């Protein structure tokens, strides 16, 4: 689960960087295209690595992330320079949102497990205490 959390966090940082990069004039031209080809490849790789989890929600997010990553590569390679800025901005926002959603689902499932362990442990301890015969002290 830690690897999943770290990969989602890295993808969130990558998506956030790409959002900022689309709005900066320093990253114009061919550099923007290569940033998004690399960012799309990273998104596909992270989604493929995380798709082995049992969680249905996480696998759905991984599928959407891989789809957006593939779109990032295609749009960077095919679209005209004037169109790349805003399509890239939308793709980067989508990657950042998918990563944030993956982190939220990860935390919900982690919190649920911790809560169940605590509640179960306390319930078992209470039952054991009730079942034990009282100790007589002379």
SSE topology sketch:
Elements: H1 2-23, H2 30-50, H3 56-78, H4 81-131
Helix pairs in contact: 1-2, 1-4, 2-3, 2-4, 3-4
Descriptive labels:
mainly alpha; 85% helix; rod-shaped
Quote the beta fraction: under 5%
Instruction: State the distance separating the first and last CA atoms.
Output: 53 Å
What would you call the structural class? mainly alpha
Radius of gyration of CA atoms, rounded to a whole number: 23 Å
Q: Share of helix among residues?
A: over 70%
- Shape annotation: rod-shaped
Biggest β-sheet: count, sense, barrel?
A: none
Poorly predicted segments = none
User: What quaternary form is this?
Assistant: single chain
Order of helices and strands: HHHH
Average of the residue pLDDT scores: 80
Total separate domains: 1
Number of helices: 4
| Number of beta strands | 0
Explain the overall architecture:
- The protein has 138 residues and is mainly α.
- The chain has one domain.
- 85% of the residues lie in helices and 0% in strands.
- It contains four helices and no strands.
Task: Briefly say what this structure is.
The chain is built from 4 helices and no strands. With 138 residues, it is an all-alpha fold.
């Amino acid at each position: 689960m830690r690897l999943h959390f770290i990969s989602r966090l890295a993808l969130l940082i990558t998506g956030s960087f790409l959002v900022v990069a689309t709005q900066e004039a320093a990253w114009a031209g061919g550099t923007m295209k290569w940033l998004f080809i690399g960012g799309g490849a990273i998104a596909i790789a992270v989604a493929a690595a995380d798709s082995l989890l049992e969680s249905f929600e996480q696998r759905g997010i991984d599928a959407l992330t891989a789809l957006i990553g593939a779109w990032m590569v295609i749009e960077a390679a095919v679209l005209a320079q004037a169109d790349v800025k805003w399509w890239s901005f939308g793709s980067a926002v989508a990657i950042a949102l998918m990563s944030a959603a993956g982190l939220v689902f990860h935390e919900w499932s982690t919190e649920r497990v911790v809560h169940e362990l605590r509640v179960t442990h306390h319930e078992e301890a209470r039952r054991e205490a009730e079942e034990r015969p009282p100790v007589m002290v002379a």
